[in-house]
Amino acid sequence: MTTMAHYIKRTSPYGGEFRGECVLCGTQDLPMEAALEDCTNPQGLTMSEIFVDILNGKEPDKMTEEEIDTFSSDGLICPYCGYCREDDLQEIDGVYDGCGGEHTCGDCGKDFKFDTSITHYWTSYKIDVE
Ligand SMILES: [Zn+2]
Ligand SMILES: [Zn+2]
Q1: Assign residue 70 a region: left if phi > 0, alpha if psi is -120 to 50, beta otherwise?
Q2: What are the pLDDT digits (tens) for 8-20?
Q3: Residue 83 Cα, ligand 1 centroid: separation in angstroms?
């Protein structure tokens, strides 16, 4: 087993004295100098395992599935698989009348709800042309 120093993660608030916890052995309230001392590393963790753990701890959301952006003006996007139905949209109730509805994905077969947004644009012209 390789000898490693304490790998200290800061636990004290920034701006004050450094106090941290060793992610290897779990010792708490360590000063910065302890980073130079040998750690017992009871679990025998390697450097790469530590980094993965630290990253996961920082961003736990990264582990969850990414949300599919279903906002589209091209067609109806399935929130489960991302399939975009662009053809024959008029056959789906609620797609064009603005009230939304439910639809079964043509790709993964799951039912999902959708909302329809209708946007109007106007342009005006002068009547008294010179
Ligand atoms: Zn340690
Ligand atoms: Zn789908």
Answers
A1: alpha
A2: 989 998 888 999 9
A3: 49
